[in-house]
C-alpha cells in the first residue's frame, strides 16, 4: 500500500480527469521548453564583512551543497573606507584604497582577500560588485560612514561613499589594480568565470552623481577591467526595479550610451558591455484585516518592463542578463520585529511558496522575451548576532535553515531541461502581472528532465496570508520510458522542512540548549513526507495523487533505470 501522500496513485488519466475535486497537473517529459539554467544559484547581501563569520560560512556551505552548479555571490561595500567591522547593518568596508600625505594611492587588499578567499575556497564565484567610493576619492567625503539602524530613514545610508570620484584616472587605476591582483592571486582562468558589475542602483540614492557621471564611471571601469584581463566579463547598470519613468529612462540611456555614446575613457564610440543587470522587487502590504498581502504582480511587472527595454536594443538583446536583486521587497535588513509589519512573511511558508512561484515565472518571462537570463540574485543571506527569527530577509538564523532555503535545495535537484507543464488552473505570468494571486490560489508546477530522472516542483501559493483549504493534486507524468519509477517526495509546509514551526513549538526561546539547537537544525533540513515509493507506469504515464496545504511546496524527484 502507498502512504497517504501516494494513496491511490496508480490511476489512469480518465479516472483523474473525472475527479473534478482534484487539481490536475500534466507534465510531458518529451516536450522540452528550455534549459534548466540554475539562475536561482545567485545570492547577495549588503554586509560584505559578514562573509568570514561562522554563521555566514555555514550558510555558504549549505548553498554550495545545493547542486553541481556553482553559486554566485554579490556583496555591497567592497571598496568602502573604514576598519572592516562586520556587525553594522547595511555597511561594510575594506580600506582597499587610501592615500598618503602627498595624495599617492595606497592599495591594501588584506580585507578584500579575506572576503574573496572565503568565497573562492568554498567553490563560490563572485558576482563582483565594484563599489563603493573610497573616502579619499569621494567628491564629498564627509560624512562618510553611516550609522543606520532599522526604523531610520532609508536615505540616511547615502553618505560620502555614494559620490563620484574626484579623479577618474585614480579610480581607473584602482579598478585595474584590483582585477590585476585578483588574476595574480586566483589565476586568469578562475577570474574569467566571475562577473564584474559596476555599482548598485545608480538611478537612486546609491549614486549621488548625475547619470552622465555614472556613464563616465562605467567607461573608466570597463577600460580598467579589460586592461587587466581582456577576457574578463564586465557589465551594469543594476538600476532599481521601479516601473517609474526614471528607472526606465536610466536603463535606456545607459544602453544607448554603450551603443553609440562617446566613451569618456577612450574617446571612441560606445562602451564595452558583456552582460546587463537590473533589479526587481515585489511590494507586500498589510491589509485592513491585518494580514500580509504579497506583491508578486509588481515583482514580475518590473522584470517584464526591463526585459522589454533590453530587447529594444538588438545589439544587446542576446547578452547574458543577471537580475542583480530579485526579492519580495526592498530592504533585507528591515526586520519585521522592528516595525516593518508588511515583512512579517519572512520566517514561514509564505516566503517559501512565494520563492517557488516567483522563480518559475522568471523562467516564463525569459522564455516570453527570448532573454538569456543567466542569474537572478536573491538578496537574502544571514544576519549574525541578531535575535532568533527576528524577521530579517534571510535564508538562516543562527545557522539554522529557514523554510525558504529548502526551496533552493529543491531547485538544486532540478537538472537537465525544463519540460512542458499543463497548469492546474488559469494562472500564468500574464494573469499574475495583471491581477496578482488572490482568492483562488496559484496551484502550479515547473518540471525538468535529464536522462534517467525528472523533477516536478509544485506549489500552492496565494498572495494573502489567510487560511486556505488544502488542494488535492492529481499529477500525470507523460513520456516515462520505463514501466516503473521510484518517487522521492520532498515537502515544505507548516510541519515539514520548517524550523520556524519547531522554534515556536519550543516556546520561541532566545536562548536554546544544545539539544534544542540540534532539533532546530534537523527541522531545517529538506524533508520527505514519506519513504520513497514505487509507482507503476502504464502507456508511458505515471499518476500520483496527494494533498497540498496552502503555501506548501513539493518536489517530486522521479528516477528510473533503462
Automatic annotation (TrEMBL):
For molecular function, the Gene Ontology terms on record are:
hydrolase activity, hydrolyzing O-glycosyl compounds
InterPro entries reported in the protein's UniProt record: GH, GH39_cat, Glyco_hydro_39, Glycosyl_Hydrolase_39
Q: Which domain of life is it from?
A: Bacteria
- Enumerate the spans annotated as Glycosyl hydrolases family 39 N-terminal catalytic domain: 25-522
Q: Write out the GO biological process terms.
A: carbohydrate metabolic process
Keywords (alphabetical) are: Glycosidase, Hydrolase
Catalytic residues in the record: 201
Family in the record? Belongs to the glycosyl hydrolase 39 family.
What protein name does the entry list?
Beta-xylosidase
Q: Which organism is it from?
A: Dyadobacter luteus
